[in-house]
Design brief:
Layout (H helix, E strand, L loop, with lengths): L1 E5 L2 E8 L14 E6 H11 L5 E9 L3 H8 L10 E4 L5 E6 L5 E6 L7 H4 L7 E5 L8 H12 L5 E4 L5 E3 L5 E3 L5 H4 L5 E5 H6 L7 H9 L5 E5 L4 E8 L2 E8 L12 H16 L2 H15 L11 H10 L7 E4 L3
Parallel strand pairs: 1-4, 1-8, 2-6, 4-5, 8-9, 9-12, 12-13
Antiparallel strand pairs: 2-3, 6-7, 10-11, 13-14, 14-15, 15-16
Helix pairs in contact: 1-8, 8-9
Length: 329
């Protein structure tokens, strides 16, 4: 059992400003941690089935390569053969969170797109997870090549839109952007994931969620997953041209500490569950609960606590019942 993970890695610097009510306190120090596709890989290493091999494919600056490989060596189920070195610095991301959890993102040193020749040797997989961490992780042409390569084997491709819906201004600050070719990007995938802001920004057309779901599922992509942060998530599923909407409430946690990487963890958890269940709803429910647990962890430093969460989740294997609606034609 093998899952291939494609996307850029980041070196995150997380800054927090306090809410007005806490202004008398000193601002917390900046937090430094691996980000981007590291969240997906580390989450899978902790929660994927024991027999699964995780094969990440991405580049890292040659100066950061030794430390990263050493960090990943603690995971016996991660095959680092697809990680390659390049000249220059690794993508550095500054995340500024405000007291109300609004976020400003500044991305510097974005790596070149991952070439298909780097990905192709690892497409003998049971599932492919593509996470558009920078929005420039793969080109549309590379995505087409991946689709054509795995099509005969019916290998599911899980696609997280993420920063594909964000542009980059002259100061390297990210901003919402529309994408003219969004239909080509979202064609012939197993599932597409995006959050509410990404869904509002991506298409040039003005769609309701239900209308957007119909557009996406008409592209031979049967599942559209809309994440809503602490409010939970929604999945639209197309079965034989019959679309249903399933709402999951947010996971119960004592305190949300850091939402950084929650979307990446969500996608990884979905894939980990789908590898064994082949069930979209069970996979979404599991992903929703794992992402909620991640929100109580700081950056990626405590990501290995997901192992304990997985064990606890397996001991209590009941599935949350989502609210179900039929999407009318």
């Amino acid at each position: 059992m093998k899952i291939t993970v494609v996307g850029h890695i980041c070196l995150d610097t997380i800054h927090r400003t306090l809410a007005a009510a806490d202004a008398v306190q000193a601002e917390p120090p900046a937090e430094l941690s691996y980000g981007g596709i590291f969240f997906s890989v580390a989450a899978l290493a902790n929660i994927a089935p024991a027999e699964a091999t995780i094969s990440p494919v991405f580049g890292v600056g040659k100066n950061e390569y030794p430390a990263l490989i050493e960090r990943l060596q603690r995971y016996p189920n991660v095959d680092t053969a697809g990680i390659y070195k390049f000249d220059g610095p690794t993508n550095a991301v500054r995340l500024a969170y405000h007291g109300d959890e609004r976020r400003t993102e500044c991305s510097k040193h974005i790596a070149d797109p991952i070439p298909f020749k780097r990905i192709k040797p690892f497409l003998d997989a049971d599932m492919v997870l593509i996470d558009m961490i920078s929005g420039y992780d793969v080109t549309l042409e590379t995505l087409d090549e991946i689709r054509m390569t795995v099509r005969e084997d019916h290998t599911p491709i899980y696609f997280d839109v993420h920063c594909l819906a964000l542009g980059l201004d002259e100061d390297c600050v990210r901003f919402p952007r529309t994408l003219t070719a969004w239909r080509r990007w979202l064609f012939w995938l197993h599932a597409v994931q995006m959050n509410e802001e990404e869904a509002a920004a991506l298409p040039q057309e003005s769609f309701t969620e239900e209308q957007f779901a119909k557009q996406i599922t008409a592209l031979n992509t049967p599942a559209f997953i809309l994440t809503r942060g602490a409010k939970g998530c929604t999945v639209f599923i197309d079965r034989h041209k019959h679309i249903t909407k399933h709402d999951f409430s947010g996971a119960a946690i004592d305190r949300q500490i850091d939402s950084t990487g929650c979307g990446d963890v969500f996608g990884a958890a979905y894939c980990a569950k789908f590898l064994t269940t082949k069930d979209i709803l069970q996979s979404v429910e599991f992903a929703n609960s794992v992402a909620g647990f991640k929100a109580a962890l700081v950056g990626s430093k405590d990501i290995d606590q997901l192992t304990a969460f997985r064990i606890k989740k397996q001991a209590n294997s009941s599935i949350a019942s989502p609210k179900v609606m039929e999407v009318k034609p």
